[in-house]
Write a structure and sequence with these properties.
The structure holds 2 protein chains of 2 kinds. Chain A has 7 helices and 10 strands. Chain A has helices at about 45-50, 75-85, 100-110, 115-130, 145-155, 175-190, 200-205, and strands at about 1-15, 15-30, 35, 60-65, 65-70, 85-90, 160-165, 195-200, 210-215, 220. In chain A, strand 1 (about 1-15) and strand 2 (about 15-30) form a beta hairpin. Chain A starts with a strand and ends in an 8-residue tail after the last strand. In chain B, the strands form 2 sheets. In chain B, strands 6-7-5-8-4-3-10-1-11 form a 9-stranded mixed sheet. In chain B, strands 2-9 form a two-stranded antiparallel ribbon. The radius of gyration of chain B is 29 Å and the shape is elongated. Chain B starts with a helix and ends with a helix. Classes of the chains: A alpha/beta, B alpha+beta.
Amino acid sequence: MLRIRDLSRSFREGQRVHRVLDHADAQVEAGEVVAIIGRSGSGKSTLLNLISGIDHPDGGTIEFDGRMISALGEPERTLFRRKHVGFVYQLFNLLPTLDVEENVRLVLELNGLHGTAARERSRAALAEVGLADRLHSAVDVLSGGEQQRVAIARALVHEPALLLADEPTGNLDQDTAREIVPLLRSLARRRAAALLIATHDPALARDADRILELVDGRLKEAPAGGGARS
Amino acid sequence: MRILRAAVLRHMLRHPAQLLLALVGLALGVATIAAVDLATASASRAFELSIDAVNGAATHEIVAGPAGVDELLYVALRRAGLPIDFAPVVEGYVAIGDRTMQLVGIDPFATPAFDDSAAALGAGAVRPGELSGWFSESGTVMMAAGTAAELHLAAGESFPLEVSGHTHAARLLAPFGAERPGDDAVLLTDIAQAQEWLHLVGHLSRIDLRLPAGSGGARALERLQQRLPAGVDVRAAGSRTRENLDLAATFTTNLQAMSLLALLVGFFLIYSAVSFAVVQRRAIIGVLRALGATRREVLDAPRRSGGDRHGGRALGTALGSPHRTCARSARRRHDQ
């Protein structure tokens, strides 16, 4: 489903070139939960940005369902991201000017679904994450856990084939994190979506089907618990 | 994309002070550009009209050196029986208070065929009783009604007139009945009076001519040239206009430089206001782009929501007109 080959990305800092990804290779199948671990600054977020088409690689290829994402222009990558990718961020990235339901429905509207159908579908997605009673709340009055639930509903409401989560528990307390991760995993599984979680939390990584560790710009397979899949 | 628009519009409404700043920036920028555009166009047009007003309907003119044309030549030419209309003109600059005006001395019996302002003398703009004052009283002048109002002068009122450092007593016979562009800087008087004030007694600044059209005009011109003494030339009236325009080239260059500077300031204001508005919404724009909104959709959202840009443009266009009026007044003062 997702194939990454020889992926490279560097950033220039003054005279120095910082090679974040250096010929990285990976493969993720549909419905798989993969944790990407690595120390801070190792390139986890850069990798997710490249996969989602937000950023463009210096070299190598990203192939998704037989389509070469890395060869697309910026507008096509945006449309790819809109349709096939759901993204959950550490800082939630909800729009403060929209209420809970509107934040979720926005993605459906971007994908061309309007009116009652969009409203019903966004409400169903919010019900799945336990926020059916907070549809019209302002997002900035919600707790961190609730905001992340809204972000998860927003990421999944358009049934993407690929769900990317960048440190999804990084801004949550431990108890809330323990609730969020299984929720994210189960919702992804229910939709047979591949889930890539960038994290430096070993406990979170242990529950993944596979663990890929980013070391010196390359992805290495690391031993995983894999219990969550069974 | 109703929600996308709502996301952007609500952000504006949540930050009214920022919205106001952006509006003011856009309005000032648009006002500056609109005013410069209008002022430049109107200045150029006003200059052309002023030149035209001074030239009148003359097709040619007789000119000589700095001392002017001997007035006896005018008498001789009138008696020569040429099929040409002649009108003597004496002109120079005078000051009324701190306002500089162009004094134009005309012969009202010769000039009506040429110039509308002078024609007003004989066309009922001046009452018969007042018209006699033109010939019988010393120092009588006429000026545009608007200029008389600006100088707080009423018909029949006397005022000091400064010519080359000497002060003379003048009296406003009557304001022009009808105003044209360029009239506001013109002070009409009898040609003999102008000669006296401008120390040109016995001389004329020029003799305006109106030649008949076609081959008859060419023949008349040829006959006229045979009668002109050395040092006196006849030339097309347009050539003087062209010379005037050439003389005004420096003024035009200055005006253009000022216009470009004002445009630069206007664009800078608009750029700053738009940049400020974009920076305010950077977080929202980032999230929208990450969710898959295209650049066009993000850019179109504020426009479709009828946001600050439209408000700023409308306000700026409205402000541009009085701004232009101020610019024109400044230009007029500069000209004087």
